[in-house]
Write a structure and sequence with these properties.
- The chain is built from three helices and six strands.
- It has about 140 residues and is an alpha+beta fold.
- It has a six-stranded mixed beta sheet.
- Strand 2 and strand 3 form a beta hairpin.
């Protein structure tokens, strides 16, 4: 039987008791003010709110607060249990777990950091809406 996989999912182990599950973002909030629950879900479930996930293991607020921080809360104990059991990670969750230090850094994180460094050094690569401190 072939392994079920989610498009864009990062599979850390080929087998395990949680290999049929995926950790992904579930969007809540408004379209212009997103807020995500980090949930453990079956790979066969569509990305819908009508189907309850297996478990919610964290939250992620991508909008910056007054201190220019993006807020993340993770249930590390439950995540380590699922990771040890071979759960799959969606690409954005794999990037977030790499930044949190739970998994190795995702290659897309290095690509994003390289592009950001290039944009700081070369003003032609920079987007128009980006304001750097010290440049006016």
């Amino acid at each position: 039987m072939p392994l079920m996989s989610v498009p864009g999912a990062v599979q850390l182990a080929k087998s395990g008791r949680f290999s049929h599950l995926v950790v992904r973002f579930q969007q809540w909030g408004c379209q212009n003010r997103p807020f995500y629950h980090i949930v453990v879900d079956k790979t066969t479930h569509p990305n819908r709110r009508q189907i309850d996930p297996v478990e919610q293991v964290g939250t992620y607020d991508p909008s910056t607060n007054s201190h220019n921080e993006k807020l993340v809360s993770l249930n590390l104990e439950r995540l380590q249990v699922y990771l040890a059991g071979g759960v799959q990670l969606s690409r954005p969750v794999a990037q977030l777990m790499g930044l949190a230090g739970l998994t190795p850094q995702h290659p897309d994180t290095y690509v994003t950091a390289w592009r950001n460094r290039e944009a700081v050094q070369n003003s032609e690569l920079r987007r128009d809406n980006v304001v750097l401190r010290g440049e006016n």
